[in-house]
Amino acid sequence: MGVTAIRLLFGLAAGILVLPHSVNAQEVIYIVRHSDPPSTLNLDEILDETPLSQSGQQRATMLAERLKDAGISAIYATQARRTVETAEHLAKARGLEIRVHSYEDSDGLVRLLHSENGKDRVLVVGHWSTIPEILKALGYPEEIKIERSAYDNLFVVVPRGDQAPIVLHLHY
């Protein structure tokens, strides 16, 4: 296990995230699934304009609290209302604008991350179906499956140039 991975794991165990300062690559990308939509809807009834439930708003607040000191300088969310609402609390706390991207273009999002946020710490809010695509586009070789009913996924991605990124799969 490399020094970067050891520092990352040690920092997580201590309750903080200690990341190395990278000279040529993105420092870290946090990728989360949007928070909970209303439980009264079937999964097939959830549309782009579906808001977060009250518990989803609470989870979004908790996410903002967990990431407020992570040094995030850019936030991306898809056009779905619940992804934007998941990111709003952190965006407000950090004084950032949420950049909306299409959930149909994960490769384009990754190109944008590299071209416009090359040395930043970034939050990306996606969906059960887009997060595996984003991780693959970032060079992560493992297959990731997210249950459609799980809203607590948090991936910490540490790019490593030409090597596969270090990816930690956490829950919040």
UniProtKB/TrEMBL annotation:
InterPro entries: His_Pase_superF_clade-1 (IPR013078), His_PPase_superfam (IPR029033). Gene3D superfamilies: Phosphoglycerate mutase-like (3.40.50.1240). This is Histidine phosphatase family protein. It comes from Phyllobacterium brassicacearum. The lineage of its organism: Bacteria, Pseudomonadati, Pseudomonadota, Alphaproteobacteria, Hyphomicrobiales.
